[in-house]
Structure formats: C-alpha cells, structure tokens
Amino acid sequence: MRILVLNQYFHPDRSATSQLLTELCEDLARHHDVFVVIGRPSYNASEGTASKGLVSKEWHGRVRVARVWSTAFDRSTMGRRLTNYGTYLASSVAGALAVTRPDVVVALTDPPPVGLIGALAARLRRVPFVLVTKDVFPDVAVELGVLRNPVAIRAARLARSGLFDAADRIVSIGRDMDQRLLEAGVPGDKIVTIHDWSDGSVVRPLDAVSSMRATLGWRDRFVVMHSGNVGLSQDLGTMLDAADRLRHEPEVVFAIVGEGAAKAGLERSAAARELHNVAFLPFQDKADLSESLGAADVHLIGLRHGLAGSIVPSKLYGILAAGKPFIAAVDRGTEPDLIANEHACGVRIEPGDPDALSRAVLEMRDADLVGMGKRGREALETRFDRPIAARAYLDLLESVAGAASAE
Q1: Which of 102, 132, 201, 365 satisfies CB 3.0 to 4.6 Å to 2 for a cystine?
Q2: Residue-level pLDDT at 71
Q3: Is 403 exposed, middle or buried (0-12, 13-18, 19+ CB in 10 A)?
Q4: Helix 335-343 to helix 369-379 angle, to the nearest 10 degrees?
Q5: Distances from the Cα of 181 to the Cαs of 56, 69, 239, 311, in angstroms?
Q6: From CA 19, how far away is CA 45, in angstroms rounded?
Q7: How many Cβ atoms sit within 10 Å of the Cβ of residue 102?
Q8: 3-class SS of residue 261
Q9: Where in the chain is the domain with CATH 3.40.50.2000?
Q10: Residue 320 Cα to chain centre, angstroms
C-alpha cells in the first residue's frame, strides 16, 4: 500500500506535531510505502536542508520525502508565519502530484488549510482521504483573538465544513475533540479517536536524580515545570502570577522549558516583576527528555479557557512516560482532566486562576508524587505508548484503503 501524507512540519523541525508525525511515518514505513510532502524547517530554521527547487526528493530512513519550496521565516510574528503557510500550501500541490498514485491520502491540520490540498489530491487520484485534526480551526484562532473578522470566520468555517465532508475518516486526538467535531456537524461514524503518544522506550522514569536538576542546583527545591511550546494557548501568564504569589516560598521554583511566540514577553514580565523563582530554559532534544522532564517534581499543563476540544496538549504523554504527576489548568472534561481522574496521576484546576494554581502547588508538595507518577507511567504503557498509536493508524489506513479497493 502507498500512503501519501501532507503536513508542513516534519523532521528536522522540532514542533510537537513534526516529531509525532515523523515517528508515525517511520512506523508506517515498516509495513507500507510512505510518501510525505513537507516544507522547509521554520520552528528551527537554522537546521538547513539540502533541498533545491520547487520539489526536492530525499529520504528519511524508509520514508520518501518530497520537500517543497516554502519560506522559512522564524515564527515570531503572525505575518511571517502566514507567509510560511501560504508558500508551503502553494508548493504542496506540486509535491502531492509528483508522488506516484497513492492508495490513501492523509493530511494533518498544520497548517489547517493543508487538508484542502489533501482532499484535492485524493479526489484527483480517486483514492480515500483521511484528515487528522491536530486542532480544530478556526475555533483556536477565534478563542485566542487572532481571527476576529466575521466574514473571515464564516469563510473559514465554510471551508472547514467542505473539508470535513470530503474526508472519508476524521481522526480526533481526544474525547473532548470528539465532542467539538460532533458539534461542528461531523457524523459520529466518520470520527476515529486515536490519541497522541510518547515513545516509552525513549522517555522513561529516572532511577537517580536528574542531571539537569543537579546542574541547576534544584536538588532541594520543589520544581514546577512547563515543558513544551511556549505559545499563546498555554496561558503561561497565570504561571507567572502564581510564582508571584509564592515568591516567599523559597523551596518552590517554576521552570518554563521550551521556545515559542510568547517566551520573550514572559521573560520581560518575569524580569520586570523580579520573579527570581522563575527559570527559563531552552528547547530540549528528544534524547534529553528523560533528564529534562525528570527534573520536575510536578508538571503544569495549561490550556486557556474555551479551547477545550480544539487543542489536546500532546505534552501530557511525555509527562506520563517520565513517570511524573501533573497539575492540569484546563476546562472540565478535557483529555488531561479525564486521564487525571481515570488514573489518579494528576489534578485539575480552573484555567486562568493563579490562586488555584498556587494552592495546588503547595498541596502537591505534600502529596504522594511517586505513586501518582507510577500510575501515570502505567497509563502510558497500557494506552498511550508509541506502538499502540502506530497500530491504530495502521489498522485505520489499511481498512480505509481496503474498502476503497473492494468497491
């Protein structure tokens, strides 16, 4: 079977979507021919590639890569980000048509309009189309205030409806996202829920003190960590507010690990408020995640109020893999809330409430963190490990392609 995948971000880009898609394509390529149409790195544009021309062919292990021309501006402003999106979308048509006729087309929503290219490629090749919804657009942009024009919002939702209609199956990455898709008019029999994952063979609980924790002098500190994208949806301003309230608790330190559009502003705010209990650390490579995630006593998963089901934080699964508990500052009924309740591996608080976060930090300091972490790791191994997700995608794609060939 030949599988054509479209998404702007892939190895060596370091976004969460890129890393997960790279792992998925590697796993699928053990069984079938996988072709992926991607753009140039922009999360870490310094990672140069040898691509030239409109469509450049290369290999990533067993995965056949068509890297199409696109701008690779840093993502610090919306204008630069949209330019990267637009140039990739224009070039991806050529990339999709340059690939040998596939048996199934898969598109992710990064950027959201790439699904339209996937739907077009599937229609032209007369093969089934599977859409993987990493986020529900334009709901995210509307909630964050990035998209406000009523005409543009209506146009985006109309395009989304057409995209949902064109898909033979729509993969949702969380039960809260299932509900959001149903509310958007997607028939229930078209939705397939496959959670994101972490590679439990790479990210593991530590047997000793984290080297990062030791290097930073945190052996005797209580470390509350956000690790991942430092963007607008995580509401990390609330984390700074909680740090302000706990500035007189010398044992507690807050760590923000990663890069993103909101980081510079958070650093300026922390400096202006003289929050000496807040540390900013750079992006950590996958190979270092056990040490990095293991440096925390408890992790923070933040998601702005109103984004439930539009985004499902993939960082949750790395936390489970590392055997660490978490505080989820999320709306009730979101995937982190459900998993915390089902496995007793975390607690939920209302998002945007620094007083609630401060109290939760102090309560977690006295909780059975080891037990919570062990239960989280058990959840990872039984439900959210990489091979489990890969098998689910493989079964889905073989089923969809098989049904189409039988017609």
Answers
A1: 102
A2: 72
A3: exposed
A4: 110
A5: 35, 32, 30, 12
A6: 15
A7: 23
A8: coil
A9: 2-197+385-406, 211-383
A10: 15
211-383 sits in which CATH class? alpha beta
Distance in angstroms (rounded) separating the CA atoms of residues 220 and 231: 30
Name the nearest CA neighbour of 16 among 365, 259, 350, 254.
Answer: 259
What is the CB neighbour count within 10 angstroms for residue 145? 8
Of 371, 380, 403, 378, nearest to 130 (Cα)? 403
Give the whole-angstrom CA distance, residue 300 versus residue 347: 10
Strands (E), 326-400: 326-329, 346-349
Cα four-point dihedral sign 385, 13, 215, 357: negative
Q: State the amino acid at position 380 in one-letter form.
A: L
pLDDT in the model for residue 46: 45
Secondary-structure class of domain 2-197+385-406 per CATH: alpha beta
Give which of 305, 385, 331, 325 is closest to 176, Cα–Cα. 331
Helix, strand or coil for residue 295?
coil
* Pairing label, strands 278-281, 252-257: parallel
Q: Copy the structure tokens of residue 193.
A: 């829920």
Mean pLDDT by 10 residues, the chain (407 residues): 94 90 98 92 54 80 90 65 75 84 92 86 95 93 88 91 96 97 96 98 95 92 96 94 97 96 95 97 91 97 94 96 98 97 98 98 96 98 98 98 81
Q: Within its chain, how far is the Cα of 234 from the centroid?
A: 12
Judge whether 386 and 23 are in contact, CB under 8 Å: yes
List all residues 6 or more positions away from 298 whose beta carbon is below 8 Å from its beta carbon. Answer: 222, 223, 224, 225, 324, 325, 326, 327, 361, 364, 369
> What angle, rounded to 10 degrees, do the helices at 175-183 and 335-343 form?
140
CB crowding 353-387: b at 16 or more within 10 Å, else e: bbebbbebbeebeeeebeebbebbbebbeebbbbe
CB 309 within 8 A of CB 136: yes
Q: Which pair of tokens denotes residue 74?
A: 């840093």
